[in-house]
Amino acid sequence: MTSPTLRMGALALAALASGAVLAQNKPVEAAKPATEKCYGVSLAGKNDCAAGPGTTCAGSSKVDYQGNAWKLVPAGTCVTLKTPKGTGSLSPTKA
Q1: Are 71 and 49 contacting, i.e. CB atoms less than 8 angstroms apart?
Q2: Which of the four pLDDT bands, split at 50, 70 and 90, describes residue 33?
């Protein structure tokens, strides 16, 4: 083999190796678990958002288990959550 041929081969090998390294360094994104809004299950000041008129959002609920304040919970678990005021709700309540 001649010197230019060796150089071309070395360059091709380097390009292939760097491509393989780059392909392996991609971060793997973790699957996010499905969630749902569950009303009436958060403690005062611990809601994720929507605590009714006159409130700013997250952390603004005034009482425990406020019916119009929600918390994100794993999908399918809201209506099984029990509180002193009943179970969680998928829609705002007056409780």
Answers
A1: no
A2: confident
Exposed e or buried b per residue across 15-41, where buried means at least 16 C-beta atoms within 10 angstroms of its C-beta? eeeeeeeeeeeeeeeeeeeeebbbbbb
pTM over 0.85: no
With a CB cutoff of 8 Å and minimum separation 6, the contacts of 58 are: 47, 48, 49
List the one residue out of 31, 55, 49 whose CA is nearest residue 92.
49
Residue 3 host element (H or E): helix 3-24
Radius of gyration, alpha carbons of the chain: 27
What is the three-class DSSP state of 17?
A: helix
> How many other C-beta atoms lie within 10 A of the C-beta of residue 77?
13
90: closest CA among 53, 46, 52, 35?
A: 35
Q: How far is CA 31 from CA 14, 37, 86, in A?
A: 34, 19, 32
